Fold this sequence. Notes:
Blueprint: H1 7-14, H2 18-36, E1 42-53, E2 63-79, E3 84-89, E4 96-99, H3 112-125, E5 133-139, H4 149-165, H5 172-186, H6 194-201, E6 204-208, E7 214-217, E8 227-233, H7 242-258, H8 269-274, H9 276-283, H10 286-310, H11 317-332, H12 345-360, E9 364-367, E10 375-381, H13 385-396, E11 401-404, E12 412-413
Parallel strand pairs: 3-5
Antiparallel strand pairs: 1-2, 1-12, 2-5, 2-6, 3-4, 6-7, 8-10, 8-11, 9-10
Amino acid sequence: MSETLTEEQLKRIYGARHAEADERFALLKKRFEKRFEASPEGFFSSPGRTEIIGNHTDHNGGKVLAASIDLDTIGAVSVNGTSRIRIISEAPHPEVELDLEKLQEVPKCRGSLSLVAGMAEGVREKGFRIEGFDACVSSTVLPSAGVSSSASYEMLLLCIINALFNEEKMSLAERAAIGQYAENVWWEKASGMMDQMACAHGGTVLFDFKDGVKTEPVPFSFEEIGCEMILVNSGKGHADLREEYSSIPNEMRRIASALGKKNLVDASEEALMEGFARVRRETGHDRALLRALHFYRENQRVEKAVAQIRAGHPEAILPAITASGNSSWKWLQSCYVTGEAKEQPVAVALALTERFLEDLGEGVCRINGGGFGGVMMCVLPKTHTGEYMDYMTPFVGRENVHLMHIRETGAVRIA
């Protein structure tokens, strides 16, 4: 082991992969010392996430069953005694430098720079402290792929700010809300806060966003049902698809408004069905109606799946994942970009996977995350994991087929 972190500290987060993590942190420390000519005073980690069931429901007050994964963003950090934040990063996050006294000069929709400025503003608006610091950041979270590389980055930095300047007084929900604020206002992306909560919390968690956010840990992993999770990167990112992404919550709210409410969670499915003809006539928007129907049934799937897990039937989650994925593809319509029907890499990856699973007679798959690009999830018995990865390699490349595990630790200071 290097002198950067102890084996015990790394095993607590990374388990059997602690040696690999040790090499990453040692390299990060060297880069920090070379750039800032000082030693870091703290080391932090924030995971990516996968949503298991509950696709695009959080922004309308819905429920999600999500989990953090064993890809993460790590940071080496020191307070610098100035009003400047300096962050050196590897891709996908560019270097950032800004003055906390001149946030009004930072442009919006400029990637990581805007996100950091938005978080700094959000921290202050919630009454917390933020001062200048230097950070060196590295990430294994797939960028623009539906596993929340941006939320992982946000929760890493907010974990740093919480530890260095606020005596750990910022709650998970407050940190997640600040990350959401940065995306909504400074990135103009109408996202909910499920991504941030899942990265911050760790493990498998039931989130209920009806009134703020309620969290409930769920004792589940795919290994306990003899399965493994594989994420397949389609190769098409969705970082530049804010309009497509934002259309989902906006269209859902359009239907909610026709029912006299702000968000769909405030109106019932029964009210929608009773007024269906009127709502369809007044809105003239069939896709919005389909997305609303997805919202209601997706919430029910989450509730039923969690109930089955708690009743001792965790294997029941598999057909629920299939149903959720089918609804996301057909009703939510998040598998390809409107007007670009010739390019459907996620749908192609799903079709190839469905073909494999149909011949196998086992396993499930679904689109993962925000959609319109990014990754899809496949869950199948461990005995067939290697076979599936070999099958998908000629189509997408081995570098885009990732064996994942649920990580029990969320965003955290390691030392």
